[in-house]
Amino acid sequence: MKIYGVVGWKNAGKTGLMERLVAEITSRGLRVSTIKHAHHSFDVDHAGKDSFRHRSAGAQEVLLASRNRWALMHELRNEEEPPLSELLARLSPVDLVLVEGYKRDDHAKIEAFRAETGNSLIAVSDETIRAVASDTALELDCPVFDLDDTTAIADFVLTEVGL
After folding, report:
1. pLDDT of 56-81, one tens digit each?
2. CA distance 73 to 58
């Protein structure tokens, strides 16, 4: 599987860019999966639901299935957070996996950047960032795309991964 990342500081436009890239790339007939890193605890089910009760009772994994989708929840229970490579191995084969976050990992990435956030660019000190998608003009040693030019960004990513 090919992998490409989208990174950036909070409120830089990462999730919107991911959403647009998934829609654009799948519209071209390619199969895409995503991985999203969260820096905080999260829950995909709710108190009182059967799956929540199973996890609360101590289940290591709970697989919730219906005719429309299935979801596997794995409780770490004091285990270390798994590396990206381990999570990638759990995915079914697709043409491209887009990864939001994991900015310290070695895979190629594009940085989402919004000037209004006041954050510095990650790209200036990270050679795994191959391009920047920005809402402002920038002078960098890598390609800079308009943050809203999804077609051009998708073309770049697909060329980068050989698709």
Report:
1. 888 898 888 889 998 888 888 888 99
2. 12
Q: What is the pLDDT of residue 38?
A: 83
Q: Which residues pair with 100 in a beta bridge?
A: 6, 36
Question: What is this structure's pTM?
Answer: 0.91
Residue type, 26: T
- Asked if the model's pLDDT at residue 141 lies above 70, the reply is yes
> Can you tell me the distance from the alpha carbon of 138 to that of 115, in angstroms, rounded to the nearest whole number?
10
The more confidently predicted of residues 81 and 20 is: 20
Does domain 2-40+81-161 bear CATH number 3.40.50.300? yes
